[in-house]
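Appendix B. Worked example

We walk through a single record from start to finish. Start with the input: the chain for Hydrogenase expression/formation protein HypE, Tsukamurella soli, length 361.
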Amino acid sequence: MTETAASSVPIPDAANWACPLPLRDSPNIVMGHGGGGAMTAELIDLLFLPAFGAAAAAEMGDSAVLAIGDSRIAFSTDSFVVKPMFFPGGCIGDLAVNGTVNDLAMAGATPLVLSTAFILQEGTPLSVIERIADAMGRAAEAAGVKLVTGDTKVIDNTSGGPGDVYVNTTGIGLVPDGMDIGPARARVGDAVLVSGDIGVHGVAVLSCREGLEFGTTVASDTAPLNGLVEAMIATGADIRALRDPTRGGMAASLNEIAKASGVGMHLVEADVPVPQSVKDACGLLGLDPFQVANEGKLVAIVAPGDADRVLDAMRAHPQGVGARLIGRCVSDHPTMVVAATGLGGTRVVDMPIGEQLPRIC
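Next comes the structure step. The output line below is what the pipeline stores for this chain.
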């Protein structure tokens, strides 16, 4: 703190300020760069893509759809650094399997095989690694995929703590002939659907990490969604786009689709299913439920005449019983997502800048 000569009133020294959202012109990597929001996009657009040059693919989504001979495959990779590694409803093991399975499913693919790579800190108990591996095996069996290859590395543990485990999973799935699901396909008039309660995973991890209680135990919604997507596709509906709203939550996913397609989106906030425990947690901590991560939910953009039958199919599946119509794609405010509030106003549902809850996946 410094003081003015005239009044002796303390003036804060800005050099020592700390902000929950990191400054976007930082010359170094900060936690926000891993949040799946605007800072992640800037890192990709301004550093990785120019560095990759001609080697970079035209589209760099959660899954790439590639032509291999007469077939098309979806290919995806993801890394998991969640802390704590075990939380209500799951652990880093089933999270890693489900996360990659879901990324493949969002391209309309049938997931087939996964690789599993482990980075283990020296000193990590073998019993911890065994629990994680067991969870991965059970999750892979539930999703109907095989774990076919992998890698293991050990790194120094300079903190002297019990050791961390980081997991990378890469997956391959088969895309049926004629399947065309992608964010650029959204059109004005399309319905915006969500498969159930949002914000549950982020709050589950946060409550476990910080020892917070919200009147009930909040369990993660981590689950494979390929079966739900198959049921939706089986209706014959025109499903334009699918996203599993993980980092950055539903807000990031819908903004990505709006930007890619050029449409606006108008949501009805009261129609978005947010459980009371998530509302309480977000109210206490100043978080927006739309920006809190999910690991077992999807958002879908569906042709207007197909919304009802897709909703019926979703609600008939265990992972979609809480499915809701939450809004429409509109011609107004192109590339922007807005929501009608309970007070009769409208608010912008913006892409998060960084990460509200670091290391939730």
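Two observations about the output. The mean pLDDT is 88. The two ends are 38 Å apart (CA to CA).
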